[in-house]
Amino acid sequence: MRAEAGKRIYSATDLVNYLGCTHATFNDLRQLVHPVVFPEDDEQAKLLQEKGIEHEKAYLARLRKEGRTVAEITSEGSLGDRVAATHKAMQAGADVVYQGALYGSPWHGFSDFLLRINGTASRLGDYAYDVADTKLARTAKPKHVIQLCVYADLLGAAQGVEPPQLHVVLGDGRMASLRTSNVRHYYGVARGRFETFVGTPPAASVAEPCGHCTFCRWSDTCTAEWEANDHLSLAASIHRSQMDKLRANGITTVRQLAMMPATARIPNLQADTLSRLRAQAALQIARRDTGKNQHEILPPSPGRGFERLPKPDPGDLFFDMEGDPLYEMGLEYLFGLVHDDGGQEKFTAFWAHMPRNIEFLYSRNRLNVAISRARCLSVAFASPRLLEVPCNTIEQMQLVNTLCWAKSYSDAYTASRGVI
User: Fold this and answer.
1) Is 244 left (phi over 0), alpha (psi -120 to 50) or beta?
2) Assigned CATH topology for domain 230-290
């Protein structure tokens, strides 16, 4: 979102942010009048950006290797110049338009790729273009589709026909495609809601924790507000619906929650739930006031919490796998297990010192160490992607089958015994 020549211009990111949290959009609007300087991206964010660019360039190289003609739109110049260059490349019939600029007031966008499709009549001739974007994710997400819908909307106006499909080039190289008509109306309603909101924004907005906080540039600002206002969300393990019920009865801060009488009741909130929330708030307030950590030992409750676990046994093993999800195709590089060794806990590591093949990763001997030596309980942590690895030989299929068997056995045991 930015202001240019006295007019606001919106992007796909603005719509995605609005669908995630209207308060983020409220802050974005305020930012146009009262600019805020944001801190630099951390190292993780920078790494993700680098990997994203690498993935994008790799797909561009793949298209060129396939013999497609590519028109690359420069990132220099005004928005109008870049839009004009994009239209010129489309009219010339390039197979691929890379970093195409699209505009239709008040929206604009820069699609990673516009892919030519023959046999679809348009203002350009007997061909048109689809939109495609590269993403590191292994599956296409709704926010990816919303982004592509913005591009498709602008592209449709430019070429006179709606792009038939939306494409996401995933981190593993696969392409996820979706018919534009299957999401067109959802997008239209979402865009209308956004335009109504920014056209007549509320006079004030209150930040509430939500799933969008993880990705939001305003998260630090909101966190500071919550801490300053002693927001109920600061009480550990409290849910949104519980906060709503408390607020409806005049309880708006963690301190007020902590100070509630033990006999107090909140309509539609179970007494034991309220008691737990009040006790948790009291512990946090005590820590805040005294600077000392507080704790409360709860009595065992049959069938709940740790009571659901089997009794500890010296033969218990705890198995873990470490990996790098940003490595091409993902990389699992460490197996480790904790076990009892003469009364002391010992960690044994199995390192992969080079990208070796499936035979190392799925070694039956290692799985045997992790599973069969436990006398009572074996806890294994693993990535679900280990069950989806492509196999090139029958032997590899048999190795992966062993891990699949272990998961099936675990699922069946869980279902029959009701344990974690």
Assistant:
1) alpha
2) DNA polymerase; domain 1 (1.10.150)
